[in-house]
Amino acid sequence: MTTDEAGRTGNAGKAGLAALTQPLAPLLSQLDAFLEEESAAFEPEVREMVRYAFAHSGKRLRPILVFYSGWGAPEKAADLVKAAAIVEMVHLATLVHDDILDDASLRHGAPTLVEKYGAHASVLVGDAMFSQALCLASEFGTTEVCRVVARATRRVCAGEIGQTFARGDDHLSREKYFRVIELKTAELFRASCRLGAYAAGYGEAFAGAADAYGMHLGTAYQLYDDVADLVGDEKKIGKTLGTDLASGKFTLPLLLLIENLPEEARRGELARLAGMGPAELAGILQEGTVMERVHGAFRAQIDAARSALVPFPEIPGAAPLCGLADYVGGLLEG
Amino acid sequence: MTTDEAGRTGNAGKAGLAALTQPLAPLLSQLDAFLEEESAAFEPEVREMVRYAFAHSGKRLRPILVFYSGWGAPEKAADLVKAAAIVEMVHLATLVHDDILDDASLRHGAPTLVEKYGAHASVLVGDAMFSQALCLASEFGTTEVCRVVARATRRVCAGEIGQTFARGDDHLSREKYFRVIELKTAELFRASCRLGAYAAGYGEAFAGAADAYGMHLGTAYQLYDDVADLVGDEKKIGKTLGTDLASGKFTLPLLLLIENLPEEARRGELARLAGMGPAELAGILQEGTVMERVHGAFRAQIDAARSALVPFPEIPGAAPLCGLADYVGGLLEG
Prior knowledge:
Helix content of chain A: over 70%
CATH superfamily of chain A: Farnesyl Diphosphate Synthase
Largest sheet of chain A: 2 strands, antiparallel
Shape of chain A: globular
Number of domains of chain A: 1
CATH topology of chain A: Farnesyl Diphosphate Synthase
Oligomer: homodimer
Strand order of the largest sheet of chain A: 1-2
Structural class of chain A: mainly alpha
Distance between the termini of chain A: 23 Å
């Protein structure tokens, strides 16, 4: 349901990310060690399951955002690692709950928690992970970290519910679509950036800019994730579009295909599209201006992410964050 | 799964509680108004569901504990109401998740959230309620409220998982049983008492005592809840015991029936009990010392709750809290 971060970007993309995050290696391994230790803070009843959830995690995108938003403050490394652990735990908890709801059996190539321990335990383990993230947040000197994390978590949940109810809604507008992806994905990206800036002590002006950067980068990332299967060979595109139509799932391309129609004509057009074969669907997508407009929307988010950082050339993280925006920007072109 | 607070105590019990909490009426109605306003803080995607969950709530036991633990500090009413809203929201969130796991269709006489909106939305609404409780916690001047609430929530989840795995465990000891009920029920009682004392500014010594009081009262309350259907007429007792045996659910009486047997004999004894009819089962329970020992364990918790408050006669809430302990103490006798 949320972003699938499992190696979709291929080897070139992976190598690009590895080069970009190479300076973070010491912090990322401190994070691994911290999460391993942190699993001991859970009651024995849940410890094994939490350890399992921590061990099968993805690309650490949100910790990377924390670390670069707080880059250049080595004396704050412990706080940055703690903030990174908090956002990663919230992210992993949402994945645990998503996997229950999607009845998913595999994630990152390993059995999901729900597959291994059942839905009952998984709902509660996700809850316990949320709670422990907030326990860690309460260890900071002020209530700021609690506030940012709790608010972001509430908004992520609202986004996922919004997505659930958006399925099959033929009045879905571009505004509603963007609101869902901003809440369900971008919200935790922006919280990560804000907390990195906060933990490093960079002040409210840069924290606000980092927040805006994270919001746009997260939106771009989810846009990419939604359309990644609509780029490449015709057969795959047509098949993906057909599956999305059949399940009532809206992606930006589908929305653009119907958004200029009067409301009463949309249902008919969706039914007509659903009746088409894969080749015909792919043709419609590639001939019109739809994918061009999707790319335009995507590039606008990447540009807005970069622009947010322009007033802060003196902040050490601004350059690597721009590099990260370029990396995400390249995902849809490849 | 957690305490069923739906009118089990009958009219006499209800009247007793109403008299005890009559002085709290203004605070309780402020709490209702606060929760109603608070539902507007949620994103529009979840607001209707949250309002539904808030409207179908129970006896407000945890808010009552907050209010009496902070009794006598009218200038702190706003903080006490906020603390009460926090613990009630955490409690309601756990009920939302419990009802999904138990596939429950009714609670307090109304359709559950999962019955009305489905499991998918309910998992996320529960998450959003947890998150908003922590948002409120972050509005206090220090991180203490966040810390207490997040820790309690984590421990409640651990208790519920412990309970899940305790089902059918014929090596279940009295220690394991008490640990489960302390975590799943008493933990939020003690957090409620601690937060009331904190919000009223009564200092750490009384906060610690209120915490201990809450722990013992919560344990007694869950003991009562576990055995309430094992008191009264023979037919009901035998039937309840039979159902518990068949589903592998342990209550203290069942545990006491087998705890003195060598481990290898327990499974056989459980099978023998499961093979009995309701009348025979009720007879075994009533003839032996089991129910006497259950009452003893229950009274010990009530006494410990009262004792915790003895050193604080000057705290205005100590007397009504003792009254509340007497009320709970009377539940099992009735």
